[in-house]
Structures are given as C-alpha cells and as structure tokens.
Amino acid sequence: MNSLDRHMQTAPVVAILRGLSPEEALDIAQALVDGGIHIMEVPLNSPEPLKSISLIAEKFGDQVSVGAGTVLTADNVKAVKDVGGQFIVAPNYSAEVGKACQLLGMDWMPGVYTPTEAFAAVDLGAHSIKLFPAELCPPSIIKAMLAVLPKGTRVLPVGGVDADNIAEYMAVGAAGAGIGSSLFKPGDSPDQVRQRAQALVTNVNKKEC
Questions:
Q1: Where are the alpha helices (DSSP H) in the chain?
Q2: pTM higher than the cut 0.85
Q3: Is the pLDDT of residue 209 over 70?
C-alpha cells in the first residue's frame, strides 16, 4: 500500500493548494498535517509549483502524499515525478496523461463528468476518479455512478465541496473529496488553514447527512 492509499483510508481529503508559493509551502503543509490532512495537491498554475512540491516532499517524506494538479501533458507528469511528486490530478480525461502516469508509476486522478469518461479513465488505469465540477453533481449522481463502476473505484467530488456538505457526499459512497478555496487561499495564515482542516476531517469522518 502506497502513502496515498494509506492516507485515503484515514483522512480522505485532498487539499488543493492553488496559488501556493514556495515561501509559504512548508508552513501551510505543517498546518494541514496538524489539522489531520496528509494529501496535498499543488496545481501547476501556482507560482513555482514544482519547487513547492519538492520542498514538501523533502521535508515531510512519507508523512504526506504530495502531488500536482492541473496536469495537462506527459511532460508535466515527468516533471512532477522528478521533484518527488507522488500523484497526478487533472481537470480532464487525457489518455496521454494517463499513459504517462502508468509508465512512471504515478497515481492518476483524472477529472470526469460523465459515466463514459469515468469508464474510459478506469480502463486506462485511473486509481481514483475526480468528479468535477461537483457543484453540478449532487450526491445522488455519485451514488448512481458507483452502482455501475467497477467495485473499488474511488470517486472524489471536487468543486463546491466544503466542511458543510462533505458528509453528504461521503454518505453515498464518495471515497473523499478535493477541497480548494474553502481550505486554503494565498495569504491565509497557517492557523486558519489548520482550523479549517480540523473541521473538514471531523465532518468527513461522520459519513452521514
């Protein structure tokens, strides 16, 4: 079992750190760990994202699982792997990115919106499915998808999920969720992030509406 799988079992929240700078990366990562979140995604449209990923991976090691988001090409996948990133998240389904992840042994979470995209991603080896944007996908859609997807497929809603509604998604079988601006925005203090992380972990573990 790799570190991502292990952390998904204990606190299945992916912290989406869009806009994170290398200067604040270690303090924010420590705040997330203190709040109970150990899975961190640095989108590639953040300032110097590869540097932030490298810093987090080097300091925290197997204590966290750190990867990249908004990954659109095979070259992106290799660059993330080279600095210690462990998983790849994308806003879309891309066979190019999926094949690169398989080749390099990276966990792949493609963004999908339809069952057709979800099945294509699973067939290409996706470890988890990012249901995006979740604002347009109520929990009932996840329940319906899980009824037909291969057993064990992890579906994580992203976009519009926060501490107030995450338990609703967990109740219908979501494996976790990706949380962005309601958890972290550039300029937030580590203490703010820690408190939000604690609230999310508490609610994700309720698994009830």
A1: 3-10, 22-35, 49-60, 74-82, 95-104, 115-123, 139-148, 166-171, 190-204
A2: yes
A3: no
- How far from the centroid of its chain's Cα atoms is residue 41's Cα? 6
pLDDT band at 207 (very low <50, low <70, confident <90, very high): low
Q: How far apart are CA 30 and CA 59, in angstroms?
A: 10
* Tokens coding 153: 């497929």
Backbone angles phi, psi at 89, to 5 degrees: -120, 140
Catalytic residues: 41, 130
Q: In the structure, how many helices (H) and strands (E) does the chain have?
A: 9, 9
- For residue 1, give Cα distances in angstroms to 4, 8, 53, 133: 8, 11, 21, 29
201, burial (CB in 10 Å: exposed 0-12, middle 13-18, buried 19+): buried
